[in-house]
Model the fold of this input.
Amino acid sequence: MEELADVVGLCEQPALPRVLSGMGVALLFENPSLRTRNSTEMAVFSLGGHPVYIQGGEVGIDERETAEDVARTLACYHRVICARVLSHDTLHRMAGALATDAVPVPVVNLLSDWAHPCQAVADLLTLRELLAPDAAGPDALKGRSLAYVGDANNMCRSLVKVGMAVGMDVRVASPPGYGLGDEEESVIAFMAQEDRWPGTLHTTEDPREAAHGADAVYTDVWASMGQEAEADVRRRAFAGFTVDERLMAEAAPDAVVLHCLPAHRGEEITTGVLEGPQSAVWRQATHRMTAMRGLFSWLLGVGVTGPGLGPLPGTALEA
Done:
């Protein structure tokens, strides 16, 4: 909780020191991206660093080289490694290899099949800006309600954790078979019970129940990358889960609409809602860069709790 508050505080600073001056940041993408690539590259640039974009095919993780060897190689040249991967296990293996070798180069999850944490930080910044513009500190969103309607996917998992960490009332509405798993709910319940996350979680199969009186309504695509073969089955399963004008009428009158994009208009959200006055999706997209600036700064030790990785062997860290 303290670390998240520290990261968010840095994100909201209008100016940050050029902690990446003269350093490289590897951006490894096994899947293509519009917002993630552009926001991360520009965040690195704004902090004085040099982003290097690497397509998955150029590396061939576990085909040409193991994930561990890829991480070790990139750590020879870069201060931070960022990766958008097909399997979350790839991130664990990359980070584990560097930890075993005591190499102080962090591996940042730009998206995996299990989580999308950087997007969740951008969402938190958006919610703070729109729902609590005059409040400050970690309790700014405490007690506010956030409804997620749709597939309880990687985005949903990260959003639930961030929302609960800042004290929000989080509701997740998914059709049978597409909700949060028992293991994930157990972890969330443990964190809440231990008072590490002051928020609450309610799951339902009724999107109207989740959206009722909500301050924010969030959705994502029903079939993510790699699930294209399931698209027709998922469309049938998610019938009635579209965030449309009728569902938004259940939410608070001034509720905001969030979507991490890209959107399949007419499926999980209507064009009218996506382009309507309650939509905050472009503020979300803007805050992808805001979030990455703050995260990189925190990793390099600008904040109170940031790890302050120190210089790489044989190099000098410029602040």
Summary: Confidence is low (pLDDT under 50) at residues 314-319.
